[in-house]
UniProtKB/TrEMBL annotation:
One of its GO terms (biological process) is protein secretion. Required for formation of the rod structure in the basal body of the flagellar apparatus. Together with FliI and FliH, may constitute the export apparatus of flagellin. Keywords: Bacterial flagellum protein export, Cell projection, Cilium, Flagellum, Protein transport, Transport. This is Flagellar biosynthetic protein FlhB. Belongs to the type III secretion exporter family. GO terms for cellular component: plasma membrane. Pfam families: Bac_export_2 (PF01312). It comes from Shewanella aestuarii.
Amino acid sequence: MSQDANKPKIREAVALSFDGKTAPKVTASGKDLVADEIIALAKEAGVHIHEDPNLSEFLQLLEIGEAVPKELYLLIAELIAFVYMLDGKFPEQWNNLHQKIVAKA
């Protein structure tokens, strides 16, 4: 068994904001107790939480207020789109296509 397996896992959290016009920005970042507080505040506010240790580790390298690098745009865009759909928000041009999809048995 390696020494890494015995180390307590460090909790990390990064909060992003997105205004729909510019790249998402880091609004909060922290580890352990600060991470717990970020997550608690997000849950209290009804914010969806995506758990991805690799993404969190990378985003931890960014400063507060810094935009997400373009290399992550597609990944972050997919997450934002998924959250919008969870909240029942769909682009107008879809013309309620999501309601027209019928599962075939």
